[in-house]
Amino acid sequence: MVPTSANPAAATGGDDHYDLVIIGGGPAGYGAALYGAAAGLHVALIEKAKVGGTCLHVGCIPAKELLETAAMRRHVASAAAFGIDATINGVSWSTTLDRKQTVIDQLYKGLSGLLKGRKVTVLDGHGTMAADRSVRVSGGASGDVTVTGDAVALASGSVPRTIPGFEVDGRFVVTSDELLSLPELPASAAVIGGGAIGCEFASMMADLGVEVTVLEALPKILPGCDDDITSTVVRAFKKRKITVKTGVGVTGHTPGASTTTVALADGSTLEVELVVVAVGRAPYTDGLLDAGTGVTVTERGHIAVDDRCRTGVAGVYAIGDVIATPALAHVGFAEGILVVQDLLGEDPAPVDYGRVPWCIYCHPEVAFTGLSEQAAVEAGYEVVVSKHRYIGNGRALILGEPDGMVKVIAAKRPDGTAGQVLGVHMVGPWVTEQLGQAYLAVNWEATVDDIAPFVQPHPTLSELFGETVMALTGRGLHG
Ligand code: NAD
Which of 59, 242, 278, 462 could form a disulfide with 54 if both were Cys (CB 3.0 to 4.6 A apart)? Predict the structure, then answer.
């Protein structure tokens, strides 16, 4: 199964035979295509909509663009403190939607160019893998064709989950798909689900003047985050008048003329113009597999794979949101690369899912890698923890964004000192851009002593990471 030539299609003589056939052109799929083509593989990429997938068209990119509009409004609103006399006369939502689309279009053009440049065959249509592992493409501009590959990667992605009682109607109830293109913002919104999507949308809408209530079923929002990080976000949300209700279920809603009334499980109600359902994403496998392929789909709808994304059917891989790994674009990229390396026989190390970077772009931003304090303790570690706040950081004060902290969790050595860095959790200004060195520290399994001597540029936000690590050596400068 492992191709030995760069182009076995030539060997088999078939125009429709590839080294690698990929179904789904999101980050996992196009990542595998670009990386595979860079390694000399002959690749076909099947996409029924536009290459770029959820991330580019209805996910990461548009969401972050709208969050930037929110940030711009916030900055202008605080301009007076800098001596700038500016007045906000309103937000032109259509302008920001146009700008969002311009960013998407530019990236889409760039991606299409990259695929073309690397001679990836992009087939427009719905891909279905048959029992004999051939892949049928239908219903799109490429017409009905069948292609074969030495390897097949299933990268069909995910769709927003919904919940009973909240059918998506595009008017009162939306998911991220619809929210990103709403013709206008509502005056009030209930966001069901306080995960990454829920918090990003809540933050964006609140900054743009929407009265927002987050309804989270679990005891805390951002349930995967360190408790200190979540509390900082909750405090910041409260300051901005975002209502956060945790431990609440929702049972349904009753639409009126211009608002709808959401029924909470505790018997109370909430009247809003819009309900945003952000309760996670479900793997998408509709029409992906004919009967008899041998590929296992789990009860939750994910494709079952081993730690190298192999499905158990020789030469068939699954990557990205369709498997039960963190639903993050960069995890999709990593899995795409892993698959290419595996099929080239390069014996790659599996993706270390417990240490991937996480970035959430609400205000304040959240970024983390590795174990939270609670998860480290649950995993049986004795830990030493250091926390430093941006209020003591020069750059943060210059920016006017003092809310937030860096928290480093290290394993406790037998002598009580701090050893290996197990996790780094950040909340505050631009932390999504500061996670890099923390990611390296955790994934290189560095100890506090390894990295404490590294010099941090001054004045920067990233000094706070250095300060927090240095404090774990028992000495520090400012902390
Ligand atoms: P999520 O799983 O991160 O969060 C969903 C939240 O909804 C959870 O906190 C859950 O407890 C809550 N919930 C579920 N059912 C509920 C109910 N009936 N009532 C109230 N609360 C309920 O999912 P998401 O935020 O929708 O994001 C989907 C995926 O996309 C995730 O895997 C996420 O990591 C990824 N994503 C990541 C980013 C980012 O990292 N910046 C941004 C967007 C999406």
Answer: 59
